[in-house]
Every structure is written in C-alpha cells, then in structure tokens.
Amino acid sequence: MRFGFCLFSVPVAACLAFSASPASAFQRESGSGTITAVGSQLPDAPPPPFEIASADSAGPPPTAGKDQSAQPPAQSPPQAPDLAAQGASGPQPSAQPPPHEKSQYEKGEEQIKEQEKQRVVGILPSFNVSYRADAVSLTAGQKMRLALRSSVDPVTVGAAFLIAGYHEALDDDPGFGWGLEGYGKRSGAAYLDLFNGTMIGNGVLPAILHQEPRFFRLGHGTVTHRLLYALATNVVCKHDNTGKWEPNYSNIGGNIASGAISNLYYPKSNSDIGQTFSNGFIVTAEGGIGSIFQEFWPDISRKFLHKDPTHGLDAQARALDAAEKQAKRSRQ
Q1: Mapping DSSP to helix (H, G, I), strand (E, B) and coil, where does residue 305 land?
Q2: Contact by Cβ (8 Å): 262, 196
Q3: Strand intervals (E) in 146-299
Q4: Fewer CB within 10 A of the terminal residue: the chain, N end or C end?
Q5: CA–CA separation, 132 and 294 (whole Å)
Q6: pLDDT by residue (tens digit) across 181-233?
Q7: For residue 210, how many C-alpha atoms fall within 13 Å in the half-sphere facing its CB?
Q8: For the chain, first and last CA: distance in Å?
Q9: Concatenated DSSP letters for 124-141?
C-alpha cells in the first residue's frame, strides 16, 4: 500500500476543496645587518687595519704583511638559504585528495530527508513520493525506515480517526458496536490497516523482492500520458538492480496481506478469504486516485498557491524533455 493513497480515498476531496581557506604564508627571516671581521694584532707586527665586510662580500678581507697566514681566518657571511633547493629537497605539500564521491547509500539518505519534508498543503505527509529523475535505489533498511516514518506520523494517526467516523456514519462493521466504544474499536482497526499496509507494502516486501516502493512522479508530458502513468504505477514498479519495470508484487501483496491480518481484529462476519482478496484489490485500485493526485499536486500548488513543492525539479525535467525532443528532430 502506498502511504497516503488510502488517506486520499476519504479526505483528499475535502483537502483539495480548501485548496574556498586562505593559504598559510611561508615566512623566512633573511640574515640582515653586517658582520665585522677584526684581525688580531700579532707581536712585533704592525696592527692590521680593521675591515668591515658586508653581508654581500664575496671573500675574506685583505690583510697586510708577511704574517697573513698567521691571522685567524675571517668569518664568512651567512649564506641565504637557497629556496629553490630547499623546495626541491624539503617536504613537498601533499596533493589535494580527490573530492569525495557520495555513495549510493549517502545519496539515498539525502533524498529520504528531502522526502520527509514533503507535505500536501503543508499537512498531509507525502514521504513516499519522489520528484527526482535521478533518484537512487534504497537499501532494505532505508525502505523499512521510510515506511515506519510514514506509519507513525501524527497525521496518519489522525486519519485513522477520520476513517473510523466515516465508517460509523455508514453503519459499517456493526460487530464493533456503537457509541464511544464502537468508535474506539473502528479507530484502532483503521490505524492497524494503515500501519500494516504501509509496513508490509512499502517496507517488508520491497526489501525482500528488491522493488521500489516509492511513487516517482513524471511531472511532464501530456495530461493523458501522466494519468495513465500514475494509474499504472499501482500495478507495476521498477526493480532495484535492473531498473526494469515489473509487476508491483509489493503493493498488491501488501494490500492483500494487510487485509488477511485484519481478519484478526475485524468482526467475524467480514473475515472470509474472498472478502480479504476483494478488499486488497479494492485498496489497490483506490491507490490510483492517490497516485493521480500526487502526480498533479505540484501543478495545482504552483497555480493556486504559488509554491513549487519540487523546488525547480519540474522545470529541469521539462527542459530535459524538450532537449531530447529537439535532438530527435535534428537527427531526422
């Protein structure tokens, strides 16, 4: 059961009506100032002159007389370090690592976070709908987590009370009784229906069968094409590994399994096998209404509420579609 689709069978009509770091500097302190070479005065020898050798002198200062060899050698000025050699022999800066490429799991986490912010009219959860053409397949754990998030949302719980009131007003399931007690039983049964259908149809079976539980909105093309696409996604879906369309065993099986489990808490008069399968197929068909609504809701929102739930993804899809059509024309 796609989450939200069963909700739209009762409240959707009312809902629509109210509708980059600076590099560090490498500093070097060069030797500045002057170095004074002073000759030593030997006995019985004329005092040598004082010579001041600058830092740029090429050699030692000259000395006088025959005792030149006896003089202590003049100090050589410190040589400026050879930056070129130092750069060649010193430690090289490490090469920048290639940018981190996100894994499929990380991309899936980001897309789930996007989906968990999606609400129709800011109220009804639309967590199981993807507006992305580049959506990645989810892991089994991610599917289960997304299904649970949808199942425990406060709006889901509130929808169960609305559904219970609807059935009590129609005198359905008289075995539950009437009044506050009967309404409480109907509310509990309605919530269990939603919980079981969502967890089995959107979580357990898609994880086991490797099927995609989300509704991927088309968002472009003719109205007829989009209508047929929305209806078809209730009975077909994409396989995680191959990406090919196949029968949506998860959605149909989840609806039937949920109906079978409901026999444990619904009055015995409704708990026969034929009714179970009948209800499962009815819920699957009703899901088509929700799919159609989800397909066209962003268009309705942009037109009447001036808000784009897709945040520009629709415009990108239309541009890509137009480019593909133009390329086909050019090849003809």
Answers
A1: helix
A2: yes
A3: 215-216, 236-238, 245-247
A4: C
A5: 14
A6: 999 999 999 999 999 999 999 999 999 999 999 999 998 889 999 999 999 99
A7: 7
A8: 44
A9: EE-TTEE--TTPPPPPHH
Amino acid occupying residue 188: G
Distance CA 281, CA 252 (A): 7
Residue 112 neighbours by CB distance under 10 Å: 18
What are the two backbone dihedrals, phi and then psi, of residue 134, each rounded to the nearest 5 degrees?
-105, 25
Q: Please provide residue 281's backbone torsions phi and psi, each rounded to the nearest 5 degrees.
A: -70, -35
Q: What is the pLDDT of residues 107-139, one digit of tens each?
A: 999 999 999 999 999 999 999 999 998 899 999
Cα distance between residue 125 and residue 281, in whole Å: 23
Structure tokens, 87? 């750069």
pTM above 0.70, yes or no: no
Q: Rounded to whole angstroms, how far apart are CA atoms 297 and 307?
A: 11
Residue 309 has which token pair?
């739930």
Tokens of 271: 């708990």
